[in-house]
Amino acid sequence: MQKAPTTNTVRAAPERARHPSVAARLVGIVALVLLLLRAAHAPWVAEAAGTVVTTLDGEGLATDGLCSLPEAIQNANQNTRSAPDCAAGSGDVTDVITFAVDGIIVIPSNWTLFDPAGVIIDGTGRAITITGTRPEAIVTPLFVQASAELHHLTIANSTGRGVVNQGTLLLNRVTITGNSLGGVGNAANLLVLNSTIAGNSAETGAGLYNGATATAVVANTTISGNTATLEGGGVQNGGGLTLANTTIAGNSAPIGGGIGGPAMVKNSVLANSGAAGPDCSGSVIFIGPSLVSTLAGCSPTGDAPLVASPLLGPLAPNGGSTPTHALVPGSPARDAGLAATCSAAPVNGLDQRGVARPQGANCDLGAFEASAGVVGGRNLTIGTGSIELSWDGGALQTGYTLLKYNTSTAVATLIAISGGATSYSDTAAANGVVYCYALAATGPAGLLGLPDLECALTGQQTGAVIAGNFRLALNQTSNATLTWTTTPGGADAYLLVVIPLDGTPNTTVTLGSGVVSRVQAVSPAGTCSQLTAFKGASFGLTNVLCGVPGVSTLADPTAAAGAPETVLLQTARAALIRDWFLTAPLTRPGFE
User: What string of DSSP letters covers 68-87?
Assistant: First the structure.
């Protein structure tokens, strides 16, 4: 069995090493160009020999009739069938390793990929996590010394780095998280696409360490929440580094919280923390627009970046195979990108999730492309026997889907509406029943963004909408705290309608005029809450607010101070409403 040394050779590279020679840099650039061409011209399987891993055993070489990942790597490296449970490696053809199992593979020693013809490890369609760990040992599960590609994998919680590259490596739709000595170490040629590097720790380069003779291109990728004790929370660079439509956010280090060292930055977002150089330290060349939260500690050249808060949502599963930071409404990163960068390789007109760019007037900065959702659900006109909905139309939709939810019967129905419509009259609404509506715009590729929600009660006349911030602040428990401010002139009473999304019955709670907050249980599937303020014979409606346990709310930054509807729960709506619209048929309990 061939193994790499137990020491992390990339991490030992000097922080201020001399710059590589022009010849070495050109060799690296050529290798990355070949990787880009390979990534852009799938399928590669037609030129490859295949091995299927059938066990989660990471120990290695037992002859038990099951093919393990270490056995598959050994056969690929040696171009033999020395491990008889796996297919033989092929000498001059790229070996492709896929999986017939789901789960965690614990590798207790460092495995090296050194097949000159290349190795592809592809977890597409599976949930595969690779972790390197052994008591009192530093384990980096994968070392690359030749050519390798990793697709649709998670590399997590290793006692060393997640992966170290000393050859030519492509990471595509890979999540690298929770590794103790950093996420990725690169000493040669690296291309990172559509991936997330998050929650790793190290002395330097907690997310990515790019060595002095190394070349790295990172595109459509999120680097988030990594922590370095010295420099380069997100990235530490001593060689050649290019970032395109990448989001580096929430990383921290005493110096260079986001990027430590030089970099070339295109269409990207930097929003990090650190005592010196929160977003970057050293010389950073900005080509075209980018956004940074501060330039303190940086020596920027090239085009001037936008200095502002990017207004990012939390790292969350916003679609696609890797988590991202969504751009909340009002983010200055929206529609601020350079079209030429978005359309060219390696971005290729897509975001990290595979959503087409642009969705609006122009493409967005960073790894996430905000969809052109519906601006509406705010202008309810309510009369006896009907509810009138209106909204502002967009330019990209080909149609709308309206979800109508009867809170009395817990039945949801879907209604198709033409793309040119800006209103809908629900004449079938029964008097005295609270209905909730979610309107989603759809395009040729499917759902365009997250829909607005609004609840209404027929047979009543509306009064003034509740003023101030009616916000749902989710705790990291099963409960949520609702707070609001009173209506102008006060309210006689409030009615809170609680709508669990797990199929259990709705409840209503009457609250006194002086009440301005309530702790409300949230079901594991999520709960929607609607507050109605009564003043005499009239009442005012607020947005319905939905949440799931353990998810923080996001205030809508576009709303003016004191505006009646200031909270849109982007993450909660992503988790709940998208399920409604993308599940066919609807399978949530209580729906038909």
Answer: -HHHHHHHHHHTS-SSTTSP
Instruction: Give the whole-angstrom CA distance, residue 226 versus residue 52.
Output: 33
Q: Under a CB-based contact definition with an 8 Å cutoff, are residues 370 and 337 in contact?
A: no
Q: Which of 31-45, 450-464, 483-497 has the lowest mean pLDDT?
A: 31-45
- In terms of Cβ atoms closer than 10 Å to its own Cβ (0-12, 13-18, 19+), residue 587 is exposed
Q: Please determine, for residue 436, whether its predicted confidence score (pLDDT) is greater than 80.
A: no
CB-facing half-sphere around the CA of 10: CA atoms within 13 A:
37
Q: What is the largest CA-CA distance in the chain?
A: 84
Distance of alpha carbon 34 from alpha carbon 328, whole angstroms: 36
Per the CB < 8 A criterion, the answer to whether 214 and 240 are in contact is yes
CATH, domain range 372-592? 2.60.40.10
Q: Which of 584, 552, 577 is nearest to 449 (CA)?
A: 577
Rounded to whole angstroms, the Cα distance separating 394 from 419 reads: 9
Mean pLDDT of the chain: 77
Q: Which two structure tokens, joined as six digits, stand for 211?
A: 């060595």
Distances (CA, A) of 99 to 54, 143, 144, 152: 6, 20, 20, 11
* The model scores a pTM over 0.70: no
Name 163's bridge partners: 142, 184
Pairing of strands 291-292, 517-521: unpaired
* pLDDT for residue 453: 57
What SS3 state is found at 576?
helix
536 vs 172, more confident: 172
